Amino acid sequence: MASSSSSTRTVPLLIDGRLVESRSTQWRDIVNPATQQVLARVPLATREEVDAAVASAAEAFKTWRKTAIGTRARIFLKYQQLIRDNMKALAAILTAEQGKTLADAEGDVFRGLEVVEHAAAIGNLQLGELANNVAGGVDTYTLLQPLGVCAGITPFNFPAMIPLWMFPMAIATGNTFVLKPSEQDPMVTMRLAELAMEAGVPPGVLNVVHGAEDVVNALCDHPDIKAISFVGSTRVGTHVYQRASLAGKRVQCMMGAKNHAVVLPDAHKEQTLNALLGASFGAAGQRCMAVSVAVLVGAAREWVPDLVAKAKTLKVGAGDRPDTDVGPLISCAAKDRVTALIQRGTDEGATLALDGRRPVLAEGNAPAAAEGNFVGPTILTGVKPGMQVYDQEIFGPVLCVAEAETLDDAIAMINANPNGNGTAVFTQSGAAARKFQEEIDVGQVGINVPIPVPVPLFSFSGSRASKLGDLGPYGKQVVLFYTQTKTVTERWFEDDVTTGVNTTISLK
């Protein structure tokens, strides 16, 4: 790491409503993964800067927690309109620093926008309960009160959507927030934070700090932070959960995955093949909900040549090209890791039905794209549990094809895998679909839907090794995560009524 140079744009911190130039001596380049162009430099915030962000949030909480629900809701009504008005510009920033296609970048922003819209309905979501006259003249009711300062740690693959999963719902429920976006692509996140300020989020209610391991640990340890939400790798998520939990915080961690799609012979062939390709190779496979294993059952095993033929038609190139289907991986290190795993798969006995390690870029890409982190659609067949390409999350445009004799065999394979983020079945049989959804031990199930991420009316419900913590992000569950349920039991006496001493536990 080196100090920032004056000739390169720097990404600021957001502390107490102000964009602040970091005093850090450690900086990281933000690199366009399609061209290796340095777009900007981001600081690894100092401990003092993290403390300042948390202190600002703690001070703002004193008044924000008392802000009327209607006032909070109106801020998010304005915020969602600002995001809509800036959709194209936000997508362009996202594509430049992350690599995904412009259409996919707009989808990234839009799925976050849906949560912002949900946050605007906080008046209906944060309702307590009341039971009248539970005993003689006694009423009991609950309050859903904010926790205080909350923090979010977000990954590189969805730099718009996942921050918008976190801070809008936390703030709408009356908390204040410190966000640490991925240091690999923080620019679109910062632009979203600026729009939040423009929408009326008061100073200190939302703060943004940048950094790597040291900043993550500082957030986990800080005594004034009450809850942490995390999305990212299993390795880091497990560390965050253990460290922050030991520090007495509420923690939710959405982590790694190995998502299977089961294809039964009666599935609609054309639609199924299209769905598999989109879910496997979209965003260059850098989705925690990507389909990374297709389990072909029975006669569906004969579909591999058609799957390969369709995959060959996908165009690889820079995300800002309108005809690109598969953009670059986030970094050179990611490319090296994915290509090494592909080689490992062949070494362990899988068949390389389609090799994307040296893709030919689509016509019209700039010459600089030759330096990009590109891996084309790759298909490995004959993949079995125990192979590294099956056991590890590849996080690249690699589809592993496994085989099963029956639906029962496919279900047993998936249930034996430790991860439980998402799964899908493709069939035209209602009976088979019902059997699958009942017997599969995975938190999110798609039926003829390859990526079953629910809309914000529901909660993201990954399970098993893909999740630590009881409550998921957004939806009804996250309202409970970001609030403390307080139960009040009350009795009022009339002036002329007296009662004697009662030494029992009864409320009579």
From TrEMBL:
EC number(s) reported in the record: 1.2.1.27
Coiled-coil ranges from the UniProt annotation: none
Record's keyword terms, sorted: NAD, Oxidoreductase
Biological process according to GO: L-valine catabolic process; thymine catabolic process
GO molecular function: methylmalonate-semialdehyde dehydrogenase (acylating, NAD) activity
Domain of life: Bacteria
Sequence ranges assigned to domain Aldehyde dehydrogenase in this UniProt record: 21-488
Annotated PROSITE patterns: ALDEHYDE_DEHYDR_CYS
Gene3D superfamilies to which the protein is assigned, alphabetical: Aldehyde Dehydrogenase, Chain A, domain 1, Aldehyde Dehydrogenase, Chain A, domain 2
NCBIfam families: MMSDH
Family: Belongs to the aldehyde dehydrogenase family.
Name under which the protein is recorded: methylmalonate-semialdehyde dehydrogenase (CoA acylating)
Native organism: Aquincola agrisoli
